[in-house]
Design a protein that fits this description.
Shape of chain B: globular
Distance between the termini of chain A: 30 Å
Distance between the termini of chain B: 83 Å
Radius of gyration of chain A: 22 Å
Largest sheet of chain B: 10 strands, mixed
Number of helices of chain A: 13
Radius of gyration of chain B: 33 Å
Helix content of chain A: over 70%
Largest interface: A-B, 30 and 35 residues
Oligomer: heterodimer
Strand content of chain A: under 5%
Amino acid sequence: MKRHSSPVITSVATLASLFLLLPQAMLLINTPWHNFTAIMGRDATFQALKVSFVSATISAIIATILSVPLAWRLSRSSSRASLLLRPLILSPIILPPTVAGFALLNAYGRTGLVGGALRTISGLSLPYTSTAVVIAGVFVSMPFVVLVLLAALDRMPSDIEEAAAIDGATASQSFWHVVIPYARNSIAIGIALAWTRALGEFGATLTFAGSLPGITRTVPMQVYLDLETMPEGAFVLSAITLAIAIVVFLLVRTPWLPSGPRGRKIRS
Amino acid sequence: MAVMGDQAIDQNGAPGKSMSKIRILFDAFGPHRINGPRRDIHFRYPSSITSRGKESYPNWHNLIIAKASRKVIATAVTGLMLVGCANSNESPQTITILAAASMTQSLTEIAQEFQQDNPKTRIRTSFAGSGTLAAQVRAGIPADVLITASRESMLRAGPRARVSGIFAKNVVVLASISSKVTSVADLNTKGVIWVRCDDAVPCGAAAKSALLREGVTSRPASLESDVNGVVGRLLSGEADAGVVYRSDAVEHPQWRAIRFASPSKVELYVSRLRDSKSGKVADRFVDYLVNSGKVFEKHGFETVK
């Protein structure tokens, strides 16, 4: 069935999609497929993938666990303080990643407020550890999860909670059995967003955690280095990352997840 | 043209066979509309000038002329813009230099002096890692001069770059900002955080060999992708020591610069790119550069006699 559209809109849409698809297509075309497994098995590539995946997964889980109560409190509270708090909490979204890393150093680095205290007390310092990679990942991805959750929770009608309260639910029961199931689609989307954001993080992780293979060097850092010396490695890593991005987005749209087609669209 | 496909509805107005196929496809991939499309509106938009279009549009010839002239105007404007852009920054007296990051301060000074001596010349500089620059030149970036910190990068830049000689050398030193590190051997002490460049970049390869020769066995906390990364760690206080170039140590006299017993050097190559549009000026600049030994020595480089 033909949908009516003006030629202008159609051509802009076509140009826009070509603009986005062409670089990705060229990436896949220029990847050295004949050497693919050899390069993928290379230590540097394998370690970068391991660091990225493990830290991104942990970051996504921590970010979501921290974000749900935060988004809940932010959406329910209407005080002026919380109105000011919203843009501050969401600000890492627009912070340039290197600035975010710099900010993390100032707080949790060796010479930072918390980090310096930590170092004085226990001699441990956060930068250059895998923990730092996770922290950087949480810092940049949490605002996205909060954003998505706020979108859902702001729209939640208060009758549902009131009904639960009338039926005798405590605040905690209400949170676990009413709010979270209501927002479960947003939580799922939030986890996916946090995961992909943490996977793609470069500037903040580099500045805060450093770049050591097997410990703190993530896929974007390895690609950056490979661009200088061994472009085939950069191609292989980029192809793998692209494939993962496509798989993640396909998964989020399947009927098996509540947000996919033919899923129930009543909930947010 | 009717809103629905011509074959979709048979004579009695009931959905025909092709309609059901379309509907299945639509349900699977198309948008979901509860009531279906609006059938009370009859669009008269000519998607092409067909015979039907002519009936709906009595002024179709005006439309064609309008469309054609629009296309002609658009092409002319685009052409003019492209020609204009191509000519705008390409005055024969502008040269573009791509240089390794370690040359930042010294090349800027030399470029300023050259521009003072040759007032009609403008010099544009771009600093990045040698490997990145080589990849850019190979991909065809418009530039006139390329300066890299290793022969490999110059070779990797492809046929545009004529491999010339070495015009300066840079030595790696250990820069320390903490009292915990006063000699190279202190790097082996537990709890010392030190950084260097990755093996894959010139500064890192030199650092690695120098450190190996002095018996440093401890692991660096981070392997940066260029020397400016190491400099950044020292400036922010996140590392106790780092292996940098002597030219960087000269720029930051507040650091303690510790020499290696058998130092490793990095050789700087310069090449005037073959397809440079400002060839004569670029050649003159390369000569000027090669003869600027004093400036290089001032910035901590070693000159080649």
